[in-house]
Amino acid sequence: MENKIKIAIIGGGPGGYETAIRLNQYGIPATVFEKERLGGVCLNWGCIPTKALVKTSELLRELSEADTYGIAEYSRTQDYNKIFERKNAVVEQLVSGIEFIFRKRKIPVVNEAVVSLSRSSEGYLLTTSSKETYEAEYVVLATGSGSKELPGIKIDEKYILSSTGLLKLSQLPKRLAVIGGGVIGCEFASIFSTLSVEVHIVEFLPRLISTEDEEISKRFALALKKAGIAIHLNTAVEAAERLDNELCLKLSNGSDLIVDQALMSVGRTPNLNIDFSGLDLATERGFVLVNDNMQTNLPKIYAIGDLTGKMLLAHTASKQGLHVAEHVKHAIEGGEHALEPINYTNIPRCTFTFPEIASIGLTEAQAKEQYGEILIGKFPFAANGKAIAMSSTFGFVKTIARSDNHQLIGMHIIGAQAAELIAQGSILIALGAKAEDVEHIVFAHPTLSEAIMESLEDLRDLSIHKT
Ligand SMILES: Cc1cc2nc3c(=O)[nH]c(=O)nc-3n(C[C@H](O)[C@H](O)[C@H](O)COP(=O)(O)OP(=O)(O)OC[C@H]3O[C@@H](n4cnc5c(N)ncnc54)[C@H](O)[C@@H]3O)c2cc1C
Question: Do 212 and 260 belong to one domain?
Answer without folding.
Answer: yes
